[in-house]
Design goal:
mainly alpha; two-stranded antiparallel sheet; 63 residues; 49% helix
């Protein structure tokens, strides 16, 4: 079948503009995680990874 999607939570759980700065998921995605199918979780992980990259770039620009 496929690998099981791993929960990206790293127990930071601080939101900035409704996005967790630890895992990159939105508040709604975090709430819905348990009810999601594996395919949905994988899609969320991909989007969350992109958000974290953008957050990282934004932090570097602020300095």
């Amino acid at each position: 079948m496929g690998d099981k999607a791993k929960n990206p939570c790293i127990s930071i759980c601080k939101l900035k503009d409704d996005i967790c700065i630890g895992c990159g998921r939105s508040r709604d995605e975090m709430k819905a995680w348990k009810g999601m199918k594996n395919k949905e979780r994988k899609a969320v992980n991909e989007v969350a990874a992109q958000r974290l990259k953008q957050l990282g770039k934004a932090k570097k620009k602020k300095k």
